[in-house]
Design a protein that fits this description.
359 residues, alpha/beta, DHBP synthase, Rossmann fold, seven-stranded mixed beta sheet, 16 helices, 38% helix
């Protein structure tokens, strides 16, 4: 029997987790059975309890534990237990910040401990699944019908997927502000998440290329949301590249700063209750920015680009490309006027994330 592709093994685990199934995460002889906390039902909890060899425990990110006020350490992730066991109400409150806006259950007696590598891998798998970064875990090997995945493959998935990107198709696509344009599609060899490059004009890769890294934004790019500046930046970048004669816009499948559309909408709900854009992500249990720019660097290499003039207000993007051996010879400011709906959002990005805006 042939060895499964590492990417496919993780992709299958993601599919299982998203449909509410138990997944076995293992490293050698040690293994945990996990369920996504947000998919938990009384039936799921009972099944996990019967299948495992220990009482169910909840693993959450250190960020989530910090904002809940139950932990003041800088742990990456922590395991939460209770001497009498965690009931569904406590699990939902601890894992889901929208539940946390409601009545707080009695959390006295909680016991917190460091998450070991297996437990941390469970949180990472939840993130890769675009679910809330929290999982219910028990010790045990499970049954033969439960899908297994190696912890190391989960932790290496983003890097492996980026390195596996290949150019799979391209076509001429005349655009409103750039008729000489084509779209190039990239996909990992396992058929995973696709990223796109919008090529404007005739790009000369022997010179620094005007480039924008644009993370997909359904709300801003497609339906014209005024809560962000993404739509303006997308269309504005294409217009500027056309005016300059050429350029490349990388359209990266990293919605909501890497947390996915559903979680971004959850963040919007939190923002409507008074949190800013950074704190909303933290209350969900994510980092303020979960994006990975290795896919962008790999796409540029496949396009023959090694030096860029980067259209961005975000210094993190400059540093990330440099880290992945793409030389940024110039940062090109990319600023558009704010409106009453996104002014606070932009000010927060400047104050907390270092974005280079002028107010």
């Amino acid at each position: 029997m042939s060895t499964p592709d590492p990417l496919i093994e993780v992709d299958r685990a993601i599919s299982e987790l998203r449909r509410g199934a138990i997944v076995r995460v293992h490293d050698g002889d040690a293994s945990l059975l996990m369920l996504a906390a947000e998919a938990l039902t009384p039936e799921h909890l009972g099944l996990l309890t019967r299948t495992g060899n220990s009482a169910p425990r909840l693993v959450v990110t250190g960020t989530r534990a910090n904002v809940l006020g139950i932990d003041k350490t800088d742990r990456t992730a922590c395991v939460v237990t209770h001497p009498q066991g965690l009931d569904l109400a406590a699990i939902e409150f601890l894992a889901n910040p929208l539940a946390a806006l409601m009545q707080r259950p009695d959390l006295s007696g909680l016991v917190l401990s460091d998450a070991d590598p297996l437990a941390r891998a469970c949180v990472t798998l939840s993130k890769l699944s675009r679910l809330l970064p929290a999982a219910l875990i028990v010790e045990g090997a499970g049954t033969p019908d439960i899908l297994s995945v190696k912890a190391s493959l989960i932790q290496d998935y983003m890097q492996n997927a980026a390195k596996a990107l290949t150019l799979v198709s391209q076509a001429r696509v005349p655009l409103e502000n750039a008729e000489n344009a084509r779209v190039v599609a990239f996909r990992p060899r396992d058929g995973g998440i696709e990223h796109l490059a919008v090529m404007i004009g005739d790009v000369d890769t022997t010179k620094p290329v005007l480039v924008r890294l644009h993370s997909e934004c359904f709300t801003g790019d497609l339906i014209g949301s005024l809560r962000c500046d993404c739509g303006n930046q997308l269309r504005g970048a294409i217009a500027e590249m056309s005016k300059a004669g050429s350029g490349i816009l990388l359209y990266l499948a990293q919605e909501g700063r890497g947390i996915g559309l559903v979680n971004k909408l959850r963040a919007y709900q939190l923002q409507d209750s008074g949190f800013d854009t950074v704190d909303a992500n933290l209350h969900l249990g994510f980092d303020s920015d979960e994006r990975n720019y290795l896919p962008a660097a790999q796409m540029l290499r496949l396009l023959g680009v090694s030096r860029v003039k980067l259209m961005t207000n975000n210094p993190t993007k400059v540093a990330a490309l440099a880290q992945h051996d793409i030389e940024v010879v110039e940062r090109v400011p990319h600023i558009y006027p704010s409106n009453e709906h996104n002014d606070g959002y932009l000010r927060t990005k400047a104050a907390k994330s270092g974005h280079m805006f002028e107010f």
